[in-house]
Amino acid sequence: MKIRKPELSFWQIWNMNVGFFGIQFSFGLQQTAVNPIFSFLGAHHEELPLLNLAGPVTGLLIQPLIGAISDKTWSPKYGRRKPFFLIGAILASLCLVAFPFSPELWFAVGLLWVLDAANNTAMEPYRAFVGDKLPDKQLTYGYQMQSLFVGAGITLANFSLFLFQDWFSVPAVAGELCSTGTEVVTAIPKWVYYSFFLGAIASVTTILWSVWKTPEIPPTDKELEYIRERKQTDSVLKRTFEPIIEIAHAIGSMPKLMWKLAAVYFFQWYALFVYWQFITPMLRTSLFGISNSDTSRFETIMEACRSGEVIGAEDMSFAQNVQLMSEQALAQTGLMNGTYNMVTMLVALALVPIARKYSSKIVYVLSLFLTGIALISMPFITDRIALLLPMILFGIGWAAMMGIPYAMVSKVIPEERRGVYMGIVNMMIVIPMLIQTLSFGFIIKNFLGNNAVNAILFGGAFFIIAAVLAMRLRVVPPTPPPRLNIEGDKTDK
């Protein structure tokens, strides 16, 4: 049974989605800064996919469980979804403050697991929260508004990295490369700290704003009665495993649209994870000319430095140049990722009338195709400003990817199981990511020449495949009851 929901004003939908800004600021730092930080702490190309295992594993386990649990939760004081994304935002903020202080690679990887768990705790209930509040006719608008804040949060996260590197980076003097008093390649640059601190503030404050400004729709009397009976009659063990059973049942009865979307998402999210992991290594090669042999020589020099050996002037100068170019590559990634997310922010709402006129499927297919073209073109562009052009295509694609599929799914799932089905949509995202983290290290090492340029081209090809598969998507509206003709004994043709 569907609850009749009032239409919301522009500012009500705006306030409801503000919290996505803080959550996505955190995700923006993960996309752009975490893998370079791993590299600063000594990680190699083929190790990067496996080091990112935290994202897909926590997303696979936490989001659908939290979604199912929040469906059957209600507090007159705190609501249904709000407690989950508020707790997630607070924990994520603490992790963001601690992350740049990571002394070793293992410490940073461990913090990433906690950070991803916190962000996933906040993310799924928030997506269901938007669906809870909006009538069907406003779902596309609401989720595209969500895309606007996704773009805004990640834009600021990336631009902060670019600007702070420009404002605060102080390269180490060649003769002091091994000094503990300077920024060295084995340490995280100090200007990165400021972006993480800004993200911690944004994560908490924006969530608090949405919690304060947006009341939740209370459950029906029937739902409240079920929640009370469940607490009284079901054991803690049963309530613990019930969400897992419900997820399995929900998967078994998924609409056909979701099964087809799962195939699209496999190629789409596999490619996105490749891009986020390898865009900075690609720029180190395609834009700054740092080869794998240069990286090996650089690491040898720094290992000798840490061992207390005397380093010659030529080697110190070489290591200093590689360090400087590595930081510039990270800053360029911030500029590029900030650009595509700024485009996302600008076009997210503009896609709503286009999707209505030409269909959501057509907009989604074109967005995937344009994103594939963007990735394939990047390695062949050697000018920093010109590299922003494919990011315009990427931004249009990202705006569609972050809104249109959710609106399509929301129209074909039962209202009372929105949380669990949105969790399943997230499973369709993180399973491809999980497969990527387990498989792509082997692929890049054995089939792509351990070359980040080839990794980005690989991702572009996967986006094209996703676009082809998306042509099969079709939203089937509920079948209306048959109408009787005038005679009353035959249905209308």
Topology:
Elements: H1 10-17, H2 19-40, H3 48-51, H4 54-71, H5 82-98, H6 105-133, H7 139-168, H8 190-213, H9 221-233, H10 236-252, H11 256-286, H12 292-306, H13 313-347, H14 351-358, H15 360-377, H16 389-401, H17 404-410, H18 418-446, H19 452-470
Helix pairs in contact: 1-8, 2-6, 2-7, 2-8, 2-11, 4-6, 4-10, 4-18, 5-6, 5-8, 6-18, 7-8, 7-13, 7-16, 7-17, 11-13, 11-18, 11-19, 12-13, 13-16, 14-15, 15-16, 15-19
Low-confidence stretches: 180-186, 483-493
* C-alpha end-to-end distance: 28 Å
Mean pLDDT: 83
Q: What is the strand content? A: under 5%
Shape: globular
Biggest sheet character: none
What is the number of helices? 19
State the order of secondary-structure elements, H for helix, E for strand. Answer: HHHHHHHHHHHHHHHHHHH
Pairing-aware structural class of the strands and helices?
Answer: mainly alpha
